[in-house]
Amino acid sequence: MLKVEGLSKEFKMHIRDGLIIEGFNEVSFTACSGKLLAITGASGIGKSTLLKCIYRTYKPSKGSVIYLSGDGSRYDLATAEDQTILRLRKTEMGYVSQFLHVIPRVSAIDILTNRLLSKNILPGEAKDTAEGYLEKVGINKALWNMYPSTFSGGEKQRLNILLALASKPRLLLLDEPTASLDSNSKEIILELILDAKKMGMTMIGVFHDQDAIKFLSDSRYDMRINQLVAVS
């Protein structure tokens, strides 16, 4: 579904007289449909930057990210027009960051319900499904009508993952999805991710959590300076 070739990212620091900082260099790999590819490596090596380049939060400095769409079209996510990227994000691609970013002063149940409505689910069904999701991940019912800004870190992360999974993207990028979760919450989230993979969702995830890697991944690459190494 996704073929990354020679992908690199550099940052030009204009406030430091144009100093060039290397995010990562010459990364290549293939992600197969319905599989989860785990990316590991030391902190600061460029793993999150790599995901952001695939999702096009950052524009890569060079290389290609060839994505096979659901209708059979191929797109180079590294060079595609912004409108194309926005359309693919809305219809086919999802992203779970390490931090929850939502509209302020909108309740958790409304945020999740609205995400489901955007997938053309009827209002009544969308609300029932949202309530089922929130209950399944153990978010207290008293919090459903509260703003996520009042949530703990673990509660925010559980909602963050629900928002991505509820959209049922073909390709889901995960940046430390189990960070800040207690053992019980982590087990629930791992099961949700595994269920999504069994339904055919393709995933690329950045992990430090060895339990998550063993439980979820079909293949693993370790990111090192100037190379991405396959791990058996």
Model description:
The chain is α/β, with parallel strands linked by helices and 232 residues long. 34% of the residues lie in helices and 28% in strands. It has seven helices and ten strands. The chain has helices spanning 47-55, 82-91, 108-117, 123-136, 153-166, 183-198, 210-216; strands at residues 2-13, 19-31, 36-41, 62-68, 74-76, 93-96, 171-175, 202-206, 219-224, 227-231. It has a six-stranded mixed beta sheet, with helices on both faces. A hairpin with a 5-residue loop joins strand 4 (62-68) and strand 5 (74-76). The protein is globular. The two termini are 21 Å apart. The relative contact order is 0.18.
Question: By helix and strand content, what is the structural category?
Answer: alpha/beta
Q: Note the quaternary state here.
A: single chain
Radius of gyration: 18 Å
Order of helices and strands: EEEHEEHEHHHEHEHEE
Number of helices: 7
**Which strand order do you get reading across the main beta sheet?**
6-7-8-3-9-10
Shape: globular
TL;DR of this structure?
With 232 residues, the chain is of the alpha/beta class. It is built from seven helices and ten strands. Strands 6-7-8-3-9-10 form a six-stranded mixed beta sheet, sandwiched between helices. Strands 2-1-4-5 form a four-stranded antiparallel beta sheet, with helices on one face.
Task: Label this structure with key terms.
four-stranded antiparallel β-sheet; single chain; 232 residues; 28% strand; six-stranded mixed β-sheet; alpha/beta
List the helices and strands and how they pair.
Layout lengths: L1 E12 L5 E13 L4 E6 L5 H9 L6 E7 L5 E3 L5 H10 L1 E4 L11 H10 L5 H14 L16 H14 L4 E5 L7 H16 L3 E5 L3 H7 L2 E6 L2 E5 L1
Parallel strand pairs: 3-8, 3-9, 6-7, 7-8
Antiparallel strand pairs: 1-2, 1-4, 4-5, 9-10
Helix pairs in contact: 3-4, 3-5, 5-6
